[in-house]
Amino acid sequence: MKRVAIIGSTGSIGKNTLEVIKELGDYEVYALISGNNIPLLLRQAQEFNPEYVGSVFSDNEKRLNELVKNRWKTLIGIEGCNELAISEEVDILVIASKGTLTFEPLIKALRCGKRVATANKETIVAYAPILKSILPAIQGELIPIDSEHSGIYQSLLGAERSNISKIILPASGGPFYKRESFEGISPEEALEHPNWKMGSKVTIDSATLMNKGFEVIEASVLFGLSSDEIEVVIHPQSIVHGMVLYKDGSVISQLSKPDMRIPIRFALTAPEHRGSAFDPLDISEVKTLTFYKVDENKFPLLSLAYYALKEGGTLPAVLAASDEVAVNAFLEGKIGFIRLMDIVIEVTQSHSPVKEPEIKDIIEAEEWAIFRSKELIG
Ligand SMILES: NC(=O)c1ccc[n+]([C@@H]2O[C@H](COP(=O)([O-])OP(=O)(O)OC[C@H]3O[C@@H](n4cnc5c(N)ncnc54)[C@H](OP(=O)(O)O)[C@@H]3O)[C@@H](O)[C@H]2O)c1
Q1: Is the Cβ atom of 97 under 6 angstroms away from ligand 1?
Q2: What is the pTM (predicted TM-score) of this model?
Protein backbone atom coordinates (compact mmCIF):
# COMPACT_ATOMS: atom_id res chain seq x y z
CA MET A 1 0.00 0.00 0.00
CA LYS A 2 1.29 3.46 -0.91
CA ARG A 3 0.08 6.24 1.38
CA VAL A 4 -1.02 9.46 -0.28
CA ALA A 5 -1.57 12.92 1.21
CA ILE A 6 -3.61 15.32 -0.93
CA ILE A 7 -3.42 19.09 -0.54
CA GLY A 8 -6.47 20.54 -2.30
CA SER A 9 -8.60 17.37 -2.13
CA THR A 10 -11.82 19.40 -2.51
CA GLY A 11 -10.96 20.85 -5.94
CA SER A 12 -11.34 19.44 -9.42
CA ILE A 13 -7.91 17.72 -9.44
CA GLY A 14 -8.33 16.59 -5.82
CA LYS A 15 -11.67 14.91 -6.53
CA ASN A 16 -10.24 13.20 -9.63
CA THR A 17 -7.25 11.99 -7.55
CA LEU A 18 -9.64 10.35 -5.07
CA GLU A 19 -11.47 8.62 -7.94
CA VAL A 20 -8.16 7.28 -9.26
CA ILE A 21 -7.11 6.07 -5.80
CA LYS A 22 -10.42 4.26 -5.41
CA GLU A 23 -9.92 2.55 -8.76
CA LEU A 24 -6.24 1.60 -8.21
CA GLY A 25 -6.95 -0.29 -4.98
CA ASP A 26 -3.42 -0.43 -3.56
CA TYR A 27 -3.11 3.26 -2.69
CA GLU A 28 -4.43 4.59 0.62
CA VAL A 29 -5.48 8.13 1.56
CA TYR A 30 -3.39 9.23 4.54
CA ALA A 31 -4.43 12.89 4.66
CA LEU A 32 -6.99 15.16 3.03
CA ILE A 33 -6.40 18.91 3.06
CA SER A 34 -9.03 21.36 1.78
CA GLY A 35 -9.32 25.10 1.42
CA ASN A 36 -12.63 26.44 2.73
CA ASN A 37 -14.97 23.65 1.62
CA ILE A 38 -15.07 21.87 4.98
CA PRO A 39 -18.43 20.10 4.33
CA LEU A 40 -16.97 18.37 1.24
CA LEU A 41 -13.74 17.60 3.13
CA LEU A 42 -15.73 15.80 5.81
CA ARG A 43 -17.75 13.83 3.23
CA GLN A 44 -14.46 12.77 1.62
CA ALA A 45 -13.08 11.81 5.05
CA GLN A 46 -16.13 9.66 5.75
CA GLU A 47 -15.57 7.81 2.48
CA PHE A 48 -11.75 7.44 2.59
CA ASN A 49 -11.15 7.42 6.38
CA PRO A 50 -7.72 9.12 6.40
CA GLU A 51 -5.49 9.57 9.47
CA TYR A 52 -5.64 13.35 9.08
CA VAL A 53 -7.96 16.02 7.73
CA GLY A 54 -7.03 19.67 7.50
CA SER A 55 -7.28 22.99 5.74
CA VAL A 56 -4.55 25.14 4.18
CA PHE A 57 -6.21 28.15 5.81
CA SER A 58 -5.37 28.62 9.51
CA ASP A 59 -8.62 30.48 10.23
CA ASN A 60 -10.57 27.23 9.63
CA GLU A 61 -8.99 25.60 12.70
CA LYS A 62 -11.81 26.18 15.20
CA ARG A 63 -14.60 25.27 12.77
CA LEU A 64 -12.78 22.15 11.62
CA ASN A 65 -12.04 20.90 15.14
CA GLU A 66 -15.66 21.43 16.17
CA LEU A 67 -16.99 19.52 13.16
CA VAL A 68 -14.42 16.71 13.27
CA LYS A 69 -15.18 15.95 16.94
CA ASN A 70 -12.05 13.77 17.34
CA ARG A 71 -13.05 11.39 14.54
CA TRP A 72 -9.84 12.26 12.67
CA LYS A 73 -6.62 14.04 13.65
CA THR A 74 -6.41 17.55 12.25
CA LEU A 75 -3.67 19.60 10.58
CA ILE A 76 -3.89 23.32 9.94
CA GLY A 77 -2.29 25.83 7.61
CA ILE A 78 0.93 25.47 5.69
CA GLU A 79 2.62 24.26 8.90
CA GLY A 80 0.21 21.30 8.79
CA CYS A 81 1.07 20.66 5.13
CA ASN A 82 4.77 20.86 6.03
CA GLU A 83 4.25 18.12 8.65
CA LEU A 84 2.80 15.88 5.96
CA ALA A 85 5.64 16.76 3.59
CA ILE A 86 8.25 15.41 6.01
CA SER A 87 6.17 12.60 7.57
CA GLU A 88 7.60 9.10 7.12
CA GLU A 89 4.01 7.86 6.88
CA VAL A 90 3.49 9.65 3.54
CA ASP A 91 4.84 8.06 0.35
CA ILE A 92 3.33 10.49 -2.17
CA LEU A 93 2.32 14.10 -1.70
CA VAL A 94 -0.27 15.26 -4.25
CA ILE A 95 -0.47 19.03 -4.67
CA ALA A 96 -3.91 19.69 -6.15
CA SER A 97 -4.45 23.14 -4.68
CA LYS A 98 -4.35 26.49 -6.45
CA GLY A 99 -2.30 29.56 -5.48
CA THR A 100 1.30 29.79 -4.31
CA LEU A 101 0.98 28.72 -0.67
CA THR A 102 2.47 25.27 -1.24
CA PHE A 103 6.08 26.16 -2.09
CA GLU A 104 7.39 25.06 1.34
CA PRO A 105 5.68 21.65 1.48
CA LEU A 106 6.73 21.01 -2.13
CA ILE A 107 10.40 21.62 -1.35
CA LYS A 108 10.32 19.84 2.02
CA ALA A 109 8.76 16.70 0.54
CA LEU A 110 11.30 16.62 -2.31
CA ARG A 111 14.17 17.15 0.12
CA CYS A 112 12.92 14.10 2.07
CA GLY A 113 13.17 12.08 -1.14
CA LYS A 114 9.40 11.76 -1.60
CA ARG A 115 7.42 11.63 -4.79
CA VAL A 116 5.50 14.87 -5.29
CA ALA A 117 2.74 14.71 -7.90
CA THR A 118 1.81 18.28 -8.65
CA ALA A 119 -0.97 19.85 -10.68
CA ASN A 120 -0.38 23.26 -9.13
CA LYS A 121 1.28 25.52 -11.65
CA GLU A 122 1.10 28.88 -9.84
CA THR A 123 3.80 27.84 -7.34
CA ILE A 124 6.12 26.52 -10.06
CA VAL A 125 5.65 29.70 -12.10
CA ALA A 126 6.05 32.17 -9.21
CA TYR A 127 9.06 30.38 -7.71
CA ALA A 128 10.56 29.48 -11.10
CA PRO A 129 14.02 31.06 -10.55
CA ILE A 130 14.42 29.49 -7.09
CA LEU A 131 13.15 26.09 -8.22
CA LYS A 132 15.47 26.13 -11.24
CA SER A 133 18.45 26.47 -8.93
CA ILE A 134 17.25 23.92 -6.33
CA LEU A 135 15.67 21.13 -8.38
CA PRO A 136 18.74 19.70 -10.16
CA ALA A 137 20.31 18.73 -6.82
CA ILE A 138 17.17 17.52 -5.07
CA GLN A 139 16.62 13.80 -4.42
CA GLY A 140 12.81 13.44 -4.56
CA GLU A 141 10.77 12.93 -7.72
CA LEU A 142 8.65 15.79 -9.05
CA ILE A 143 6.02 14.33 -11.39
CA PRO A 144 3.67 16.66 -13.22
CA ILE A 145 -0.08 16.11 -13.32
CA ASP A 146 -0.76 18.85 -15.84
CA SER A 147 -1.65 16.78 -18.93
CA GLU A 148 0.83 18.50 -21.27
CA HIS A 149 3.73 18.10 -18.86
CA SER A 150 2.74 14.54 -18.12
CA GLY A 151 2.77 13.93 -21.89
CA ILE A 152 6.23 15.49 -22.18
CA TYR A 153 7.50 13.62 -19.09
CA GLN A 154 6.37 10.33 -20.65
CA SER A 155 7.87 11.25 -24.04
CA LEU A 156 11.19 12.02 -22.35
CA LEU A 157 11.53 8.75 -20.41
CA GLY A 158 14.95 7.30 -21.11
CA ALA A 159 16.06 10.34 -23.14
CA GLU A 160 19.52 11.90 -23.11
CA ARG A 161 19.22 15.67 -22.53
CA SER A 162 21.74 16.34 -25.31
CA ASN A 163 19.53 14.58 -27.89
CA ILE A 164 16.49 16.83 -27.34
CA SER A 165 15.88 19.56 -29.89
CA LYS A 166 12.70 21.02 -28.38
CA ILE A 167 9.42 20.17 -26.73
CA ILE A 168 6.02 21.08 -28.17
CA LEU A 169 3.12 21.99 -25.91
CA PRO A 170 -0.29 21.62 -27.54
CA ALA A 171 -2.99 24.14 -26.60
CA SER A 172 -6.65 23.44 -27.29
CA GLY A 173 -7.07 27.15 -28.06
CA GLY A 174 -9.96 27.36 -25.59
CA PRO A 175 -13.40 28.51 -26.73
CA PHE A 176 -12.17 31.58 -28.67
CA TYR A 177 -9.28 30.63 -30.93
CA LYS A 178 -11.51 31.03 -34.01
CA ARG A 179 -13.40 34.09 -32.73
CA GLU A 180 -12.58 37.34 -34.57
CA SER A 181 -13.31 39.84 -31.80
CA PHE A 182 -13.00 39.50 -28.03
CA GLU A 183 -15.53 42.30 -27.39
CA GLY A 184 -18.42 41.46 -25.06
CA ILE A 185 -17.27 38.00 -23.91
CA SER A 186 -19.14 37.00 -20.74
CA PRO A 187 -17.70 34.85 -17.92
CA GLU A 188 -20.27 32.15 -18.83
CA GLU A 189 -18.94 31.99 -22.43
CA ALA A 190 -15.32 31.92 -21.26
CA LEU A 191 -16.11 29.12 -18.80
CA GLU A 192 -17.36 26.88 -21.66
CA HIS A 193 -14.15 24.98 -22.40
CA PRO A 194 -14.59 22.81 -25.49
CA ASN A 195 -12.66 19.76 -24.22
CA TRP A 196 -11.78 19.90 -20.51
CA LYS A 197 -13.83 20.17 -17.30
CA MET A 198 -11.65 22.13 -14.87
CA GLY A 199 -11.81 24.68 -12.05
CA SER A 200 -12.95 28.19 -13.11
CA LYS A 201 -9.55 29.94 -12.80
CA VAL A 202 -7.71 27.50 -15.07
CA THR A 203 -10.64 27.51 -17.53
CA ILE A 204 -10.47 31.31 -17.94
CA ASP A 205 -6.68 31.04 -18.26
CA SER A 206 -7.25 28.55 -21.08
CA ALA A 207 -9.50 31.04 -22.87
CA THR A 208 -6.81 33.79 -22.76
CA LEU A 209 -3.98 31.27 -23.36
CA MET A 210 -2.42 32.55 -20.12
CA ASN A 211 -2.63 28.94 -19.01
CA LYS A 212 -0.40 27.93 -21.91
CA GLY A 213 1.99 30.73 -21.00
CA PHE A 214 2.19 29.40 -17.44
CA GLU A 215 2.78 25.95 -18.88
CA VAL A 216 5.73 27.25 -20.92
CA ILE A 217 7.32 28.56 -17.70
CA GLU A 218 6.38 25.37 -15.85
CA ALA A 219 7.99 23.24 -18.61
CA SER A 220 11.14 25.32 -18.45
CA VAL A 221 11.40 24.61 -14.69
CA LEU A 222 10.41 20.93 -14.78
CA PHE A 223 12.55 19.90 -17.75
CA GLY A 224 15.41 22.42 -17.48
CA LEU A 225 14.76 23.99 -20.90
CA SER A 226 15.25 27.52 -22.24
CA SER A 227 12.38 29.49 -23.81
CA ASP A 228 13.79 28.74 -27.32
CA GLU A 229 13.38 25.03 -26.67
CA ILE A 230 9.63 25.25 -25.95
CA GLU A 231 7.08 25.69 -28.72
CA VAL A 232 3.31 26.03 -28.43
CA VAL A 233 0.88 24.87 -31.13
CA ILE A 234 -2.90 25.01 -31.25
CA HIS A 235 -4.32 21.47 -31.31
CA PRO A 236 -8.11 21.76 -30.97
CA GLN A 237 -8.81 18.03 -30.44
CA SER A 238 -6.75 17.79 -27.16
CA ILE A 239 -5.72 14.22 -28.01
CA VAL A 240 -1.94 14.80 -28.32
CA HIS A 241 -0.80 16.08 -24.92
CA GLY A 242 2.91 16.67 -25.32
CA MET A 243 5.58 16.14 -27.96
CA VAL A 244 9.35 15.95 -27.91
CA LEU A 245 11.29 16.64 -31.08
CA TYR A 246 14.62 14.84 -30.92
CA LYS A 247 17.66 16.01 -32.87
CA ASP A 248 17.48 12.92 -35.10
CA GLY A 249 14.10 14.16 -36.39
CA SER A 250 11.90 11.78 -34.37
CA VAL A 251 8.89 13.18 -32.56
CA ILE A 252 7.75 11.16 -29.53
CA SER A 253 4.35 12.03 -28.12
CA GLN A 254 1.68 10.85 -25.70
CA LEU A 255 -1.95 10.57 -26.79
CA SER A 256 -5.10 9.97 -24.80
CA LYS A 257 -8.62 11.27 -24.36
CA PRO A 258 -8.75 14.59 -22.50
CA ASP A 259 -9.30 13.12 -19.03
CA MET A 260 -7.25 14.39 -16.07
CA ARG A 261 -7.54 11.02 -14.37
CA ILE A 262 -5.00 9.64 -16.87
CA PRO A 263 -2.08 11.96 -15.95
CA ILE A 264 -3.09 11.76 -12.26
CA ARG A 265 -2.91 7.97 -12.35
CA PHE A 266 0.44 8.08 -14.15
CA ALA A 267 1.83 10.52 -11.56
CA LEU A 268 0.91 8.00 -8.85
CA THR A 269 2.12 4.85 -10.64
CA ALA A 270 5.01 6.13 -12.84
CA PRO A 271 7.02 4.86 -14.55
CA GLU A 272 4.41 2.10 -14.86
CA HIS A 273 1.13 2.61 -16.72
CA ARG A 274 -1.13 0.83 -14.28
CA GLY A 275 -4.90 0.63 -13.82
CA SER A 276 -7.69 0.62 -16.38
CA ALA A 277 -8.74 3.65 -18.40
CA PHE A 278 -12.21 4.93 -17.54
CA ASP A 279 -12.94 5.48 -21.25
CA PRO A 280 -10.00 4.39 -23.45
CA LEU A 281 -9.10 6.13 -26.70
CA ASP A 282 -10.26 4.34 -29.84
CA ILE A 283 -7.68 5.64 -32.30
CA SER A 284 -9.78 4.65 -35.32
CA GLU A 285 -12.47 7.07 -34.12
CA VAL A 286 -10.00 9.99 -34.15
CA LYS A 287 -10.61 11.21 -37.67
CA THR A 288 -8.38 14.27 -37.63
CA LEU A 289 -5.51 15.64 -35.59
CA THR A 290 -4.75 19.24 -36.54
CA PHE A 291 -2.03 21.65 -35.42
CA TYR A 292 -1.81 25.41 -36.04
CA LYS A 293 0.55 28.23 -35.16
CA VAL A 294 -0.71 30.52 -32.39
CA ASP A 295 -1.85 34.01 -33.42
CA GLU A 296 0.20 35.98 -30.87
CA ASN A 297 -1.59 39.26 -31.63
CA LYS A 298 -4.85 37.69 -30.60
CA PHE A 299 -3.40 35.99 -27.49
CA PRO A 300 -0.81 38.46 -26.14
CA LEU A 301 -0.60 36.76 -22.73
CA LEU A 302 1.29 33.86 -24.29
CA SER A 303 4.03 36.21 -25.58
CA LEU A 304 3.99 37.95 -22.20
CA ALA A 305 4.77 34.63 -20.50
CA TYR A 306 7.75 34.07 -22.85
CA TYR A 307 8.93 37.59 -21.96
CA ALA A 308 8.57 36.83 -18.21
CA LEU A 309 10.47 33.57 -18.65
CA LYS A 310 13.34 35.24 -20.54
CA GLU A 311 13.60 38.16 -18.11
CA GLY A 312 13.17 35.82 -15.12
CA GLY A 313 13.63 36.98 -11.52
CA THR A 314 10.38 38.15 -9.95
CA LEU A 315 8.56 38.66 -13.29
CA PRO A 316 6.84 35.23 -13.44
CA ALA A 317 5.51 35.80 -9.89
CA VAL A 318 4.11 39.19 -10.91
CA LEU A 319 2.54 37.70 -14.04
CA ALA A 320 0.81 34.93 -12.03
CA ALA A 321 -0.38 37.21 -9.21
CA SER A 322 -1.71 39.87 -11.56
CA ASP A 323 -3.53 37.26 -13.62
CA GLU A 324 -5.14 35.79 -10.49
CA VAL A 325 -6.57 39.19 -9.51
CA ALA A 326 -7.68 40.05 -13.04
CA VAL A 327 -9.37 36.66 -13.60
CA ASN A 328 -11.29 37.00 -10.32
CA ALA A 329 -12.41 40.51 -11.31
CA PHE A 330 -13.54 39.18 -14.70
CA LEU A 331 -15.48 36.32 -13.06
CA GLU A 332 -17.13 38.81 -10.71
CA GLY A 333 -18.20 40.91 -13.71
CA LYS A 334 -16.05 43.91 -12.68
CA ILE A 335 -13.99 43.96 -15.90
CA GLY A 336 -14.32 42.58 -19.42
CA PHE A 337 -12.21 39.93 -21.14
CA ILE A 338 -10.02 42.40 -23.04
CA ARG A 339 -9.43 44.50 -19.91
CA LEU A 340 -8.40 41.32 -18.05
CA MET A 341 -5.58 40.80 -20.56
CA ASP A 342 -4.62 44.50 -20.63
CA ILE A 343 -4.26 44.65 -16.85
CA VAL A 344 -1.96 41.63 -16.74
CA ILE A 345 0.17 43.14 -19.53
CA GLU A 346 0.34 46.57 -17.92
CA VAL A 347 1.26 45.24 -14.47
CA THR A 348 3.86 42.77 -15.76
CA GLN A 349 5.53 45.24 -18.12
CA SER A 350 5.76 47.96 -15.48
CA HIS A 351 7.52 45.71 -12.94
CA SER A 352 11.28 46.05 -12.42
CA PRO A 353 12.26 42.49 -11.54
CA VAL A 354 14.66 41.42 -8.80
CA LYS A 355 17.04 39.30 -10.85
CA GLU A 356 18.08 36.62 -8.36
CA PRO A 357 15.19 36.66 -5.91
CA GLU A 358 14.92 35.10 -2.49
CA ILE A 359 11.57 33.88 -1.16
CA LYS A 360 10.85 37.25 0.44
CA ASP A 361 11.40 39.04 -2.91
CA ILE A 362 8.87 36.74 -4.59
CA ILE A 363 6.30 37.37 -1.86
CA GLU A 364 6.88 41.14 -2.08
CA ALA A 365 6.57 41.05 -5.88
CA GLU A 366 3.29 39.14 -5.60
CA GLU A 367 1.96 41.65 -3.09
CA TRP A 368 2.94 44.53 -5.35
CA ALA A 369 1.26 42.86 -8.37
CA ILE A 370 -1.95 42.24 -6.40
CA PHE A 371 -2.02 45.84 -5.18
CA ARG A 372 -1.26 47.32 -8.62
CA SER A 373 -3.81 45.07 -10.40
CA LYS A 374 -6.54 45.97 -7.90
CA GLU A 375 -5.68 49.64 -8.37
CA LEU A 376 -6.15 49.29 -12.14
CA ILE A 377 -9.42 47.38 -11.70
CA GLY A 378 -10.64 50.23 -9.53
N1 LIG B 1 -8.58 21.24 -13.16
C2 LIG B 1 -7.75 20.79 -14.08
O3 LIG B 1 -8.11 19.99 -14.93
C4 LIG B 1 -6.31 21.24 -14.06
C5 LIG B 1 -5.47 20.82 -15.08
C6 LIG B 1 -4.14 21.16 -15.03
C7 LIG B 1 -3.64 21.91 -13.97
N8 LIG B 1 -4.49 22.34 -13.01
C9 LIG B 1 -3.94 23.12 -11.90
O10 LIG B 1 -4.21 22.43 -10.69
C11 LIG B 1 -4.44 23.36 -9.62
C12 LIG B 1 -5.83 23.10 -9.04
O13 LIG B 1 -6.78 23.32 -10.07
P14 LIG B 1 -8.31 22.92 -9.90
O15 LIG B 1 -8.92 23.14 -11.22
O16 LIG B 1 -8.43 21.59 -9.24
O17 LIG B 1 -8.80 24.08 -8.91
P18 LIG B 1 -10.12 24.14 -8.03
O19 LIG B 1 -11.14 23.18 -8.51
O20 LIG B 1 -10.47 25.57 -7.90
O21 LIG B 1 -9.61 23.58 -6.60
C22 LIG B 1 -8.61 24.25 -5.88
C23 LIG B 1 -8.29 23.54 -4.59
O24 LIG B 1 -7.38 24.38 -3.85
C25 LIG B 1 -8.04 24.88 -2.66
N26 LIG B 1 -7.72 26.31 -2.58
C27 LIG B 1 -8.50 27.39 -2.87
N28 LIG B 1 -7.81 28.53 -2.70
C29 LIG B 1 -6.58 28.17 -2.26
C30 LIG B 1 -5.41 28.90 -1.91
N31 LIG B 1 -5.36 30.23 -1.96
N32 LIG B 1 -4.31 28.21 -1.50
C33 LIG B 1 -4.33 26.85 -1.45
N34 LIG B 1 -5.41 26.11 -1.79
C35 LIG B 1 -6.51 26.76 -2.19
C36 LIG B 1 -9.52 24.62 -2.87
O37 LIG B 1 -10.13 24.47 -1.60
P38 LIG B 1 -11.70 24.68 -1.33
O39 LIG B 1 -12.43 24.34 -2.59
O40 LIG B 1 -11.94 23.71 -0.20
O41 LIG B 1 -11.86 26.10 -0.89
C42 LIG B 1 -9.49 23.32 -3.67
O43 LIG B 1 -9.24 22.22 -2.84
C44 LIG B 1 -4.28 24.75 -10.24
O45 LIG B 1 -2.94 25.16 -10.06
C46 LIG B 1 -4.54 24.50 -11.73
O47 LIG B 1 -3.90 25.45 -12.55
C48 LIG B 1 -5.80 22.01 -13.02
Answers
A1: yes
A2: 0.95
